[in-house]
Amino acid sequence: MKTNEPIRDAKALGTGKVLVLGLQHLFAMFGATVLVPILTGLSVSATLLFAGLATLFMHFVTGKKVPVFLGSSFAFLGGYSAVKAAALAEYGLETEAALPYACAGVACAGLLYLILSAICKAVGSKNVMKFFPPVVTGPIIIAIGMILAPSAINNCQTDWLVALIAIVVVIVCNIWGKGMIKIVPILLGVVASYLFAALTGKVDFTLVAQAKWIGLPVQMKDTVFSLFGNCNSGLLISAIITIVPIAFATMMEHVGDISAIGATIGKDLIEDPGLHRTLIGDGIGTTIAALFGAPANTTYGENTGVLALTKVYDPMVIRLAAVFAIILSFCPKFAALITCMPAATCGGVSIILYGMISAIGIRNMVENHTDFQESRNIIIAAAIIGLALGVEFSGYLGSTISPEVGNLLHGGIGFTVGTAKITLSGLAVASIVGIVLNAILPGGRTEYTPNDINSGSLGKY
């Protein structure tokens, strides 16, 4: 599939090759995209549907100029976990009842993209992004991975052999794999571990047998609209305040990925079609997905890797992958097959995944030359990490808890406004404090240019 010269019109390759290219982009995004609903309890079918729809919308908004796929974002995993923990601890709500509140928070986070888009259009990206440098977003990303790590261990403890197979396959494929094998190590790790568990009788396929072949991907009870007339205002406000600050990190990720795609295809996408347009596509895609019970979307670096591998830069092949994802979303039996995945398989890949999230935060600061000789930068990073971890794990009770409880056990800072009890997660507190400290502490702020942002995507592994 490699060519010596970039191909910007895939039609010249013929229908057969174009279909293969579309499937290749589907597989590249697939492992990470479906892993998010598995880890959070969201609908796999809705996830695939709105990943496909968001991608098509992004291409429409940008005039079909940007070859980008919008898949599930891992950056918000900590937010989902914190909201579920608050719902269980404060109101006795289980995961299924708590998720619409978390989705409402994500929907509001998506709207933040629109605000930033309008500001970027009005005053320019440079004047806006300088308030969110790597010394702020880097430690936030580091904290996200560290907060999630204990849940990966809890899942691995259900069957360490199954988890170990996933870990080994991911490492081997990522280090020694070639071509597409190197691009989709998480997917291969999941398949190998799942297959081993199935062959050894460790998977119950009852749900798969009972599921229909064709069905609607969205259930009203899973959507934000299910809260109308039956909403806990305190939990809703807590969810919004907890999750919205995470968008500051994902917006930086967005800028980095758009810059990386532009560098890959040899075009300045920040200028044409413009950062404000890509932010609109990403933001509205995330908001609509969240309202209907799907995860937040983000620009996917995996598919940028496929672009570099194949040198086929025509956005049409990615739109084809989006159509394939939409088609799969209408197959409940396929979603049930994903839902039956062993917890240990999720735990194994998550150990690598969550560690890489933190590593991306470190790389973000290193490659942008964050100067830790300056006291202000040390203070900002220390406050973010200290508050995020300290507040988040203040609810930890000890090692004797069950994995089910341990995965939801997080602390928070609570206060009451009127009759509503609001709880801020460690990530929310840390994000707010970091942004404020960067704005008020003297010295050290560097000028921003879009190409300075590194593209370590939180939507990928």
Write up this protein:
By secondary structure, the chain is mainly alpha-helical. The chain contains 20 helices and four strands. It has helices spanning 15-40, 44-61, 77-91, 95-123, 125-129, 134-156, 160-176, 180-183, 185-199, 206-210, 233-243, 246-265, 270-291, 301-310, 316-329, 332-339, 343-367, 375-392, 403-406, 426-440; strands spanning 70-72, 297-299, 413-417, 420-424. The strands form two sheets. A two-stranded antiparallel ribbon has the order 1-2. Strand 3 and strand 4 (420-424) form a beta hairpin. Helix 2 (44-61) runs antiparallel to helix 13 (270-291). The two termini are 24 Å apart.
Distance between the termini: 24 Å
Please identify the structural class as seen in this structure. Answer: mainly alpha
Gyration radius, in Å = 21 Å
Helix/strand order, N-terminal first: HHEHHHHHHHHHHHEHHHHHHEEH
The low-confidence runs, each spanning 5 or more residues with pLDDT under 50, are: 397-409, 450-456
Strand content: under 5%
Summarize the main sheet: 2 strands, antiparallel
As an assembly, this protein is: single chain
Overall morphology: globular
Average predicted confidence as pLDDT: 82
How do the strands of the widest beta sheet line up side by side? Answer: 1-2
Q: How is the secondary structure organized here?
A:
Blueprint: H1 15-40, H2 44-61, E1 70-72, H3 77-91, H4 95-123, H5 125-129, H6 134-156, H7 160-176, H8 180-183, H9 185-199, H10 206-210, H11 233-243, H12 246-265, H13 270-291, E2 297-299, H14 301-310, H15 316-329, H16 332-339, H17 343-367, H18 375-392, H19 403-406, E3 413-417, E4 420-424, H20 426-440
Antiparallel strand pairs: 1-2, 3-4
Helix pairs in contact: 1-2, 1-9, 1-15, 2-13, 2-15, 3-4, 3-11, 4-11, 4-13, 6-12, 6-17, 6-18, 6-20, 7-9, 7-17, 9-17, 12-13, 12-14, 18-20
